[in-house]
Fold this protein.
Amino acid sequence: MPIAVIVTLAIQIALAIHVAKTGRSLYWIMIIVMLPLIGGVAYLVVEVLPGLGHDPRARRALRSLGARLDPAKNRRRIEAELAHADTLENRRRLAEECLRLEDYENAAALYRRCLTGVYASDPHFMLGLANALFGDQQFAECRDTLERLIAANPAFRSVDGHLLYARSLEAVGEAAKALDEYAILASSYPGEEARWRYAQLLGSQGRAAEAREVLQTMLKREQVAPRYYRNKERRWLDQARSALKALE
């Protein structure tokens, strides 16, 4: 049997099953069977595609596909809105989009434009700027920005900001201070990344026994953690296993 016939038959069966499962009129099955290509296309155009706009999962899938096909589409849209209205909200949105696209230089410039007037010490904008600076490998400035953030906003709390601070200290060679911060994060960060980075830095400082203990703790936690957590933290847990073997 020619491959084209097999593919056409498979599509017909799939569409017929879709008709039955979604409760659509069964006359569509007859149309799909009698008009293999035209009937299938007609069913998709008339019945399936219009409904995608009302299905949250379909909308998310379409947005995800669009982002992969044209990663800068959303950025261009926000840039046009910012050109039309240079508001704080539009600057923030564009800064976040640049950060997502790893355009760290422009993200930093936009966050600096946000940090003016009554928002000159806004902790969220300062944290965004610190993320952009770290991504741009301006580690000392990232550290300084985070220290100014805490000085201006002593009640502000962010575990991601805390981890970024520890990483910036490590990046500028302040290993002792970084270890102090990682030690705190090892018991407070809601994930395994902080523990992994703590173990790595301990190992690089010749403290292999302590590094091994942290890695073993990660793997013990994995044994009792729910599946969603194990899946979410798979990258760090796999690296912990590899690092532990290297230390043995």
